[in-house]
Amino acid sequence: MMKRWLWMGMLMAGFGAAGLGLPGEARAAALTASDLSAAAVGVANAWTASADTAAAEHYNPAGIAWLPGAAFALDYAARYENMSAKLGGGQGTPYNRANPRNLASLYATWMPRGGDWGAGFGLDMPFSLNTQWGSAFGGQAQRTSLDVLHLSLDAVYALNSSMAVAAGGDWYGGRVDVDSATTRFHGTDNAAFGGHVAWMWHPSPTWSVGAVFRSGPRLKLSGTATGAVSGSASTTVRLADVAQLGVARVFADRWRLEADARWEHWSAFNDLNVTGATGSEANPLNLRDAVSAMVGLTWFWREKTQFRFGYAFEGGATRKSGFNARVVDGDGHRLSLGAGSDLMGAHFDVAYSYIFYPARTVSGAFAGRYKQRRQTLAISVSKRF
Length: 385
What we know:
Layout: H1 2-21, H2 38-42, H3 56-59, E1 69-86, E2 103-111, E3 117-131, E4 143-158, E5 163-179, E6 183-204, E7 207-214, E8 218-227, E9 231-238, E10 242-251, E11 255-264, E12 274-276, E13 279-281, E14 290-302, E15 305-314, E16 332-343, E17 346-362, E18 368-384
Antiparallel strand pairs: 1-2, 1-18, 2-3, 3-4, 4-5, 5-6, 6-7, 6-8, 7-10, 8-9, 9-12, 10-11, 11-14, 12-13, 14-15, 15-16, 16-17, 17-18
């Protein structure tokens, strides 16, 4: 048994290294990387009021109060996207050729049996931006890549048997590439901080309510530029504050239905300008706040086996007015399904989601008819001790 667990640990660690340290085959452009647990992906990320693995550290840390003992979760998500822009005047149809990272996450929690205080730890990548249009649009959005690594620590307090709260700190480290036909820039920031609070309440055995708020950090990414802007340079990224609320209800001891709403404050992210001693290059974004709604259904087929289904309307952050192809994040419709079961002394979850984005036509410097599809395949292994 010990040897089996050793091999499983090595395999998942390898997946984690691939997700956190190496470029994947995914093609993603949206800012929020929400697929951080296969159990959540299966219900279209409607999981704020029912998070029941160590991944609660991300989705709702207050849920740790209902995970007695120690728990951990390893999660990996492979994402695939097809995005194109049909240009007018016979200019052709360029495709986004970016290869961003797939997602890997590690979570660990501890809640003493019968105790009031607990703790949680998480390491994940909740924000990612990757587009690469090459010479299209005159090279104005040649390449844009932003990866944000996130570490969270939480203290959890059970007010009573039905209600718990959590509060914690967030550390963010980011790296960015902003390239155009005239300037190439690479920058990093390893000292950005934020915080969060969470709440979960079980007013009855069949109802639960959860809420989370995370403050978005301000990353000042400094590095070196070449071209029209050269030498030491920097850009500033203001990541979104995020608030999410969920309500879940269990029916007939076999079905759990949850509905969530999420708000993301992307209007604070005004631009991706590169500024250096020799001048600056403007990249206005004109983003808007995004509002999403998710609903998920879990069927407890047997005591240790579940099937999951979900739908979400995911609000995008980009407007048609002032559109910049560096960030292509439109409104999307997500369909998800998943399954979970105990196996070899642990719990495994797998999930698949497909997101359809209605085609939209924009004008201006990045005029074209944009089409976008995205798929996610996620797997998680979790264990409680």
